[in-house]
Amino acid sequence: MNPMDKITTHGTGIMEWLNEKGVEYGLKLLLAIVVLVVGFRLISFVLKKMSHLMDKNNMNASLKTFLRSFTGIVLKILLIISALSIAGVEMTIFIAIMTAISAGFAFAMNGTLSNFFGGAMILSFKPFEVGDFISASSFSGTVVEIQIFFTVLTTPDNKTILLPNGGLSNNPLVNFSKQKNRRVDWVFGVSYGDSIEDARSMILGFFNKDSRILSDPEPFVGLEELGDSSVNIAARAWVINADYWDVFFDMNERFYKEAGNHGLSIPFPQMDVHFDKENSPPTKLVH
Predict the structure, then answer these.
(1) Which CATH class is domain 119-175?
(2) Which of 37, 69, 113, 173 gives 20 to 30 Å between its CA and that of 46?
């Protein structure tokens, strides 16, 4: 047989093998892509049904967002692994690579894992829920969503803040919405020489005329401090949580407008300077 015929025959065999493998892997890749597309749509459908079911059962809003986000991530990871397997990726090698990567991420993402478990702690012990107004890490706002790693706040001036769950679960925070009622505190300043009794009577009169202020516990008005330029009077009253800021600002405005009608004056910082003529240095005149 001519050697050239052998080479041609051998080359033809290689091409046939390549064509066969190309078709085989092409079909696997195509099938993997189809599985991914259909899978992502199915996951979206499952998550919508899951949300609908949780809404129907009146599940806690915080837990609902957490479970939906966590379930979506797990399902997508499983889908991607399945698609890689269908495409012909050797799973033993893939698992070994993923194990090595996971070990590296375990050190690099220590804070992320802390945030994950922090989110689980928040949902378990419920220091706050969606809709509560909280203050933490020098930020204040209304809780909009509790995600796997972050809690989303909206500030009164409509800014969005993402706070890591790890810090929220391990550091102090203030929940202003946890209790039904809340105490409002004021400090009103009057001038030296003004009647403290008149000031107390006026402030208590404001409280008695305002239906938003609760009678139990009773409002309190007392002398707090003899300041540098004013006599400072502390006033405290209890309201339901929703009325806190309205009552606070209304009382400040009412005191300012009506103090003069009750013989009271609102002081401002001032300083009296006295010169001792005998011991003062001579004045140097410049011509």
Answers:
(1) mainly beta
(2) 113
pLDDT tens for each residue of 64-92:
777 777 788 888 888 888 887 777 766 66
Give the C-alpha separation, 190 to 255, whole Å. Answer: 11
The correct answer on CATH 3.40.50.720 for the domain covering 181-262 is no
Q: Considering the domain 3-108 in this protein, what is its CATH number?
A: 1.10.287.1260
Chain segment 139-177, per-residue pLDDT in tens: 999 999 888 888 999 999 999 999 998 888 888 899 999
Nearest Cα neighbor of 217 from 181, 185, 243 is: 181
Residues of the chain with CATH 3.30.70.100: 181-262
What pLDDT is stored for residue 279 in this prediction?
Answer: 61
Instruction: Extract long-range pairs of 251-254: CB within 8 Å, 24+ residues apart.
Output: 251/184, 251/186, 251/206, 251/210, 252/186, 254/206
For 195, phi then psi, to 5°, come to -75, 120
